[in-house]
């Protein structure tokens, strides 16, 4: 799908998507006919084989982008300390995908504090020059507009690295009426929406309200912002999450329709006629 930006979900397959995606031999191949990016959560929990990476590469076009998370053991268990060997091994495994890699995703836990920032700078400075990355922080000090946040933002600007913006406001506006919603609200951070202007492509992770029809007011500011970025020639990354990520494809379709109203020249997603039933709880 030819888009002037990157749009994706946190996964490329779900049983509920079988009637929504074009036909194809593999879920990733079907997904990549509709969306041009995916957030690779799979690598956070388990590292694929190099052969698996070769198979993934064979299933996507050259303008598709994988945004893989660094493994949990690197970012969470070791907080970026003493991880050079693990990082090099991980990047070597991903090498068959080098031409379709988007920014590598450094997701840092709340346990990663301001006193750990030197680790982040050393980690990023050791990455191959050809590799870009984006950083998501969750410690409250990085959202206080104090010295810790200024230091973080300054270091990212100096390196021209994007600060991932996670918007979970819609999720936390929902009543916790089901275990799926309660689980999502337990796991997802409730942090302010802070943007950092840099030349690197912006990255937005939007966590939706479980009722699809409740999302447009929360999406509206992003429609305007992303529309402006596209008009300025930037290529932002936009990822659509839901409490049940089987519903993420429907949210991506809603988003694309709203963006097309702002930018008529940007095509909306063209999914099959059958739609999932959302918001029934």
Structure description:
The radius of gyration is 18 Å and the shape is globular. It has a single domain (6-262), classed as Alpha-Beta Barrel (TIM Barrel), CATH 3.20.20.410. The two termini are 34 Å apart. The chain has helices at residues 27-31, 42-45, 50-58, 72-77, 84-93, 117-126, 147-159, 169-173, 179-187, 216-231, 248-262, and strands at residues 6-9, 37-40, 65-68, 104-107, 133-136, 162-163, 165-167, 203-207, 237-241. It contains 11 helices and 9 strands. A 6-stranded parallel sheet has the order 3-2-1-9-8-7. It is of the alpha/beta class.
What structural keywords apply?
12% strand; alpha/beta; TIM Barrel; 6-stranded parallel β-sheet; 36% helix; 3-stranded parallel β-sheet; 281 residues; disordered C terminus
**Overall pLDDT:** 94
Indicate how many domains the architecture comprises.
Answer: 1
Helix-strand sequence: EHEHHEHHEHEHEEHHEHEH
Shape: globular
CATH architecture term:
Alpha-Beta Barrel
CATH H-level superfamily: Protein of unknown function UPF0759
Give, in spatial order, the strands making up the sheet with the most strands: 3-2-1-9-8-7
Q: What is the count of helical runs?
A: 11
Strand content: 5-15%
Radius of gyration: 18 Å
Q: At the first level of CATH, what is the class?
A: Alpha Beta
- Straight-line distance between termini: 34 Å
At the third CATH level, what is the topology name? TIM Barrel
Helicity level = 25-40%
Largest sheet: 6 strands, parallel
């Amino acid at each position: 799908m030819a888009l002037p930006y990157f749009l994706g979900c946190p996964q490329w397959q779900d049983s509920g998507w079988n009637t929504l995606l074009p036909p194809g031999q593999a879920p990733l191949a079907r997904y990549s006919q509709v969306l041009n990016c995916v957030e690779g959560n799979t690598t956070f929990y388990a590292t694929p084989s190099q052969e698996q990476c070769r198979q993934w590469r064979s299933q996507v076009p050259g303008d598709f982008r994988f945004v893989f998370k660094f493994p949990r053991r690197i970012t969470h268990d070791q907080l970026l300390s003493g991880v050079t060997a693990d990082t090099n091994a991980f990047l070597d495994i991903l090498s068959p995908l080098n031409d379709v890699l988007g920014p590598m995703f450094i997701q840092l836990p709340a346990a990663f504090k301001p006193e750990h920032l030197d680790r982040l700078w050393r980690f990023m400075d050791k990455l191959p020059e050809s590799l870009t990355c984006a950083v998501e922080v969750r410690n409250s000090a990085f959202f206080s507009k104090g010295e810790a946040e200024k230091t973080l933002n300054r270091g990212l600007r100096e390196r021209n690295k994007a600060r991932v913006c996670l918007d979970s406001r819609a999720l936390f506006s929902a009543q916790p009426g089901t275990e799926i919603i309660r689980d999502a609200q337990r796991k997802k951070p409730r942090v302010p929406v802070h943007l950092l202007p840099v030349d690197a492509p912006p990255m937005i992770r939007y966590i939706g309200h479980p009722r699809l029809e409740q999302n447009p007011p929360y999406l509206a500011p992003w429609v305007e912002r992303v529309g402006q970025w596209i008009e300025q020639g930037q290529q932002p990354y936009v990822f659509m999450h839901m409490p049940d990520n089987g519903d993420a494809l429907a949210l991506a379709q809603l988003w694309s329709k709203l963006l097309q109203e702002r930018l008529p020249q940007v095509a909306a997603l063209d999914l099959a006629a059958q739609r999932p039933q959302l918001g029934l709880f």
